[in-house]
Design a protein that fits this description.
Elements: E1 3-7, E2 10-12, E3 18-25, E4 34-39, E5 45-51, E6 58-60, E7 68-73, E8 78-83, E9 92-99, E10 107-110, E11 114-118
Parallel strand pairs: 2-11
Antiparallel strand pairs: 1-3, 3-8, 4-5, 4-9, 5-6, 7-8, 9-10, 9-11
Amino acid sequence: QVQLVESGGGLAQPGGSLRLSCAASGFTFSSYAMIWARQAPGKGLEWVSGIYSDGSDTYYADSVKGRFTISRDNAKNTVYLQMNSLKPEDRALYYCTKGVAGVVGLPDYWGQGTQVTVSS
């Protein structure tokens, strides 16, 4: 069965960095886009970043553009989200999700999430 396991969340100071990882299993990882989403307390879901199955194209929400970088290693079945210049408003539960095709679109599977807190 499809499994998505996020790691790398935690506490960071404003201006700091964190790197999220998502280890995938149970499907042909290299055939599907992967998308990171987040949900902050009391707010709706936000699509943060996505990457095509072959890594040839990426998507970023305006709120993270220039600060976050998505990447993937198809040999390791892992997708990453490098988060730099973190702001308090980046505090959220971050989910790794699997797309339904090779290009970025709505996902069909979700991980359990990893908590990111940005505070001094």
